[in-house]
Amino acid sequence: MADAALRVLRRDPALRVLRRDPVLRAVIKAVGPCLLEVTAREPYEALIRAIAHQQVHGRAAEAILGRFVQLFPGPHFPQAEQVLAMPVEALRGCGFSGAKVIAIRDIAEKTVGGLVPSLEASKRLDDAALIERLVALRGVGRWTVEMLLIFTLGRPDILPVDDFGVREGWRLATKGEAQLKPKELEAIGEAWSPHRSIAAWYLWRASDAGKKLKSVAAA
After folding, report:
1. I need a surface site. Which of 94, 196, 197, 203 has the fewest CB within 10 A?
2. Active-site residue (options: 3, 12, 157, 163)
3. What is the pTM of this model?
4. DSSP annotation string for 50-110
């Protein structure tokens, strides 16, 4: 790793905390500076995009979303009221399953009704309050809300212990035979607060590195 990158790692207050854990210290050294990117958008939009990506390859999900957006005039993501006015058949025609159409319409209805907060309103709610509100939506579980908290709202202290990649990254980094149970990793991760989102990002990178090694070995 270049000297400049090492200086960044040593100077960053979050990484100074995370490097106290010897496992994370090794991962950080191997990966380098954190490149976690946050895309600020309305939670309503982020949730619909998350629904589109559930159990579908990324490129296929983006194609479906592209057809969805094209149903509505204008350059911006369709508003909740527009989605509710669109016939169900048209939404199905984009490639959404019946269950996903129900979930998308529920998100739109709850946005109009005020349960799904705006981006500005979200900033006034803490992590637990947002999770409690949004898991009440059709098709939205805790993991989906945690992804919104990290990648849309930029919340710094989220550790999605139910995420396969996060647990697999820890298993690979510790050379464990099996993944830890979510509660076990949650207990370990308490020491990483208030920077657990960055810890999750590094564990995802460790998981990605493991996939690449497996692919090379299989070639």
Report:
1. 94
2. 163
3. 0.86
4. HHHHTTS-HHHHHHHHHHHHHTSSSSSPPPHHHHHHS-HHHHHHTT--HHHHHHHHHHHHH
